[in-house]
Structures are given as C-alpha cells and as structure tokens.
Amino acid sequence: MSLINENFLELEDSYLFSTIAKKVSTFTSKNPDKKVIKLGIGDVTRPIVPACLEAMHKAVDEVGTEQGFKGYGPEQGYQFLRKAIIENDYNTRNIEISEDEIFISDGAKCDCGNIVDIFGKDNKVAITNPVYPVYLDTNVMSGRNLTYLPVTAENNFIPQLPKEKVDMIYLCFPNNPTGTVLNREELTKWVKYAKENKSIIFYDAAYEAFIKEKDIPHSIYEIEGAKEVAIEFKSFSKTAGFTGLRCAYVIVPKDLKGYTKNGEQVSLNKLWNRRTCTKFNGVSYIVQRAAEATYTEEGKRQIRENIEYYMENAKTIKEGLEKAGFVCYGGVNSPYVWLKTPNGMKSWDFFDKLLNDIAVVGTPGVGFGDCGEGYFRLTAFGTKEATSEAVERIVKLFK
Ligand code: MLT
Fold first, then answer.
1. Which atom of ligand 1 is found nearest the CA of 206?
2. In contact, 107 and 242? CB cutoff 8 Å
3. Which of 118, 134, 160, 194 is most buried per CB count within 10 Å?
C-alpha cells in the first residue's frame, strides 16, 4: 500500500490559474464566436526579443557541430550567464555577488516552490494575504504552519512585522497580485527583523524591471546586511518574453546560514547546491545563451521597449478605470492593476460577470487569499489593442 503525502489533501482542489483556465475554456466552447480578452494570468504577449532570437539561432548552429556540441551543462548554470547577471543586475547597484551564489533555473515559480526542500518542517512561515499562491501551496504541501500578514488598502498594502516569531518570510515586490511596492525604509525593517530572529526572507523580485519610481529597491541586497538573511528570486519571463522558454535565477548568498536542531550553523548555499546537483540538470545551453543576450546593448534596448509597452497598458487600465469611478492600486511600478470591485461585489461574482457579459478575463482577488475578497487583478501583459478594448468593455458594462 503506497501512502500519500496527506498534506496535499489540505490544498484547494485546483491551482488558481488552472481553475480560471477551465472556466474560460468552458465559456469559449459554449460561445465560439465571442472574442475573449485574457488579462488573467500574467503571461506575456510580446514575442521573444530579436537579440535573444539571434543568440539562440547561433547557439543552435553551434551545438550542431562536433566542437560546439554541449551535453550536460553545469547544474548551476553556465559561467557566461552568471557573469552577465553579476555585472548587470548587481554590480551596477554596488552589490557584490559571486558566481557560486547564483543558480540558473527554469523559472522563478519552480525556484520559489523548490526552495522549501532545504528547510525543516517545523519552521513557522509568514506570507502576505493576498499572496502569489505558490508560496502558500508549497508550504501546505510540506506541512508547515503559516502566519498571514494582511495587505489591504487599510495598511497601504504594506505588510506589518509579525507579532509572533516566524522563521521563513515570503516577500514579493513589486507585489503580485497587488502591484504595490515597498520602499527602502520598509524593506530595511524586514531585514532587521530577520537578523534579530534568525529568519530567512525569500525575496521574489520577478517584477523588479517594472519599477519606475526612485528610492524603490530593485534587489533586497541593496539593504545593508540582507546577504545574511535573504534569498532572492529573479526571472527573465516577463521582460524578454521567456514565459514559454523558461529561464530564471536564484541568489543564495554564502553568508546565509540555517540551523540544525542543535543550533549548529549550516550554509544554505551548500544545501541548495547539493539539492540542485541531485534534482536538476541545468537549463539548456541555447536558452542560457538567449538569457545572456538580454544583457547586450541591443537586448537591453529591446527589453526596455517591451516594459514601456506593457506599462503603457497598465496606464490605460488604471486611468481608464479610475476615470469611470473604479478604485485602482498598483500599475505604476508593476504590470498588475489591483482594483476594488464595484458595489462591494464578491471577487468571483465580478469574474463571472466580466467573463459572461463582456468576455473579459481577469483574476479574482480572493483567489490570492481572503484579504483579496472584493478585489480583482488585471494584467498589463495583453496587447495594446486588446487592453484598450477590455477597458472600454468594462467601463460600458458599469456605466
Ligand atoms: C501570475 O499571473 O500571477 C503569474 O503569471 C504567475 C507566474 O508567473 O507563475
């Protein structure tokens, strides 16, 4: 008799975005002539930028030759990409990261989910509410205790330090789903808390490139001492169009320590490296060459264009809906707009109304946690035309 991991029975039946995809597919099969506009899951619509395409074509030709063929690569990623990351994402912000602190992966979602492997079951975990479901679900799967930190309009979407001691803290800024940010002063409080309590912060910076305002940290390592308390997750998905290609990275600093039950310190970098070598065979050479190309002058320019394009959409959503009387948050330093549903409608009722009446798909706020009830998330990752049309349809529906 094979026993199951019963923690899985504690999960919601279906992952949020799978539930939405199913609802949309049912609607589409019943209404084949309706043009559905999808502003739900944060999947990009702009194709992979030319600099990356060119690098991939070159890499494809290279691996087709005897001299250029690549078998298994380093599990942690090729040196050329790790070097480019250090120089461009960290040294430019006066942050020192060494190559063996970077682990190239197939996505920040996978990294955020997998990282729990190296932590004990008895850790107390703090997540915001609402929250990106991966942090919640993966800790439920491994049977950890959770503490929720509400982030709502009432506290300006700033999570307050927990009253009880927690060991693992998930912070995502710019935030998914609320689109809001944390300034330097607020982030410093968390680093201080983690130091005092020997906790670890999991800092998901997947949307960092969308920050426009000054004095908003792009990396948690901009905060003094953060290398002793934080793991950082970054992604190529939303900037260079890699949601399908898959490439991301995680920084596990060598200063970072976990503890045995006896209070002995253990290097988390060493544990993560051990886990990576056992369970992962690295991202393909071709994809890593594409990721490297995001750091060329051409690549940077093309990505900037993508970001500006999406942020123009965010503006269209935010300003269009605000003009019609909606209350909106986010959308300034982030591709997500978090809106209050009109007339206190429940998030799923609003979702159903938008889908059934005007064929627009978003994400119900309550799907990210009960503090998201009465909110709704729209993504700026659609095309310009579809985004404008979606806003027009919503405005007309609630006139
Ligand atoms: C989202 O819509 O929240 C994101 O696209 C999910 C993800 O990146 O995994």
1. 8
2. no
3. 194
* Ligand 1 pocket mutation, candidates 41, 109, 134, 207, criterion most atoms within 8 A of CB: 41
Query: Which residues have CB under 8 Å from 44's CB, separation 6+?
Result: 237, 238, 241, 243, 306, 310, 381
Structure confidence at residue 14 as a pLDDT band (50, 70, 90):
confident
What pLDDT score was predicted for residue 399? Answer: 87
Check residue 236 and give its pLDDT: 96
CA distances for 27 relative to 14, 19, 361, 392, angstroms: 18, 13, 11, 21
Q: Atom 5, ligand 1: which residue's CA is nearest?
A: 42
State which ligand 1 atom lies nearest to the alpha carbon of 363.
Answer: 2
Q: What is the pLDDT of residues 134-164, one digit of tens each?
A: 999 999 999 999 999 999 999 999 999 999 9
Q: Is the CB of 176 under 6 A from ligand 1?
A: yes
**Strands 168-172 and 145-150, sheet pairing:** unpaired
For residues 175 and 375, is the Cβ–Cβ distance under 8 A? no
* Cα distances (Å, whole numbers) of residue 119 to 73, 94, 109, 268, 326: 27, 30, 17, 9, 42
Copy the structure tokens of residue 253.
Answer: 């600093």
Q: Ligand 1, closest atom to CA 43?
A: 5
pTM (two decimals): 0.96
Ligand 1 centre from 173 Cα, in Å?
14
Residue whose pair of structure tokens reads 């997947």 in the numeric block: 206
Nearest to 268 by CA among 173, 218, 202: 202
Question: What secondary structure letter does DSSP report for 119?
Answer: S
CA–CA separation, 201 and 32 (whole Å): 46
Ligand 1 atom closest to the CA of 177, numbered from 1? 3
How much is the average pLDDT of 172-189? 97
Query: Do 231 and 250 form a contact (C-beta atoms < 8 A)?
Result: yes
Closest CA to 364 of 37, 354, 356: 354
pLDDT in tens, 268-299: 999 999 999 999 999 999 999 999 999 999 99
pLDDT at residue number 13: 84
